[in-house]
Design a protein that fits this description.
This protein has seven helices and two strands, in the order αααααββαα. With 161 residues, the protein is mainly alpha-helical. Strand 1 and strand 2 form a beta hairpin. It is elongated and about 60 Å long.
Length: 161
């Protein structure tokens, strides 16, 4: 027996309870901002049980992607999804959790090197599969072509100077 799941689509006008017709450009921006907040709330909720913020999780993934090479604060900041994050504070919190280490470069004492620890890698090994399943579930009602188109349109939107 074939079961079809119906998704209830709410228009952004219904969500923000406006009866005023929105111009397409304003509607798109409001929809993007609303959806960004909606996704952030969902991800935050998923990460809550692991006692880690989205930004901290992002830092761990950045450091893990360094493949054992150290990163400095500016490298981490450049690669952050949210550029508004206080990278120093995030690294300090991850140090307290023993997920990252910070050392002074032996050849240049002004340079600080940040690395993911063994505990940080183990944490990512536990959390990443859970987040992957969560992300797949969140986008399950979109086709592969929908996702490609969405990414293409988002990339295109950011080309505005």
């Amino acid at each position: 027996m074939y079961i079809q799941i119906l998704y209830r689509q709410l228009n952004i006008e219904d969500i923000i309870k406006t009866e005023v017709p929105l111009p397409p450009s304003k509607k798109a921006i409001i929809n993007l901002m609303y959806t960004e907040n909606w996704v952030r709330e969902k991800v935050t909720s998923e990460l809550k049980s692991f006692d880690i913020s989205i930004q901290q999780f992002n830092v761990l993934r950045i450091l893990n992607g360094q493949k054992g090479k150290p990163a400095n604060l500016s490298t981490i900041q450049e690669r952050m999804v949210s550029k508004m994050s206080n990278t120093t504070r995030l690294v300090d919190k991850l140090i307290q959790k023993n997920y990252v280490s910070r050392t002074t470069c032996p050849t240049n004492r002004r340079k600080v090197e940040i690395r993911i620890t063994k505990e940080g890698k183990q944490f990512l090994d536990t959390v990443s599969p859970v987040i992957n399943v969560f992300e797949n579930n969140l986008t399950a009602h979109l086709t592969e072509q929908d996702l490609l188109t969405l990414n293409e349109l988002l990339n295109k939107l950011r080309t505005v100077q």
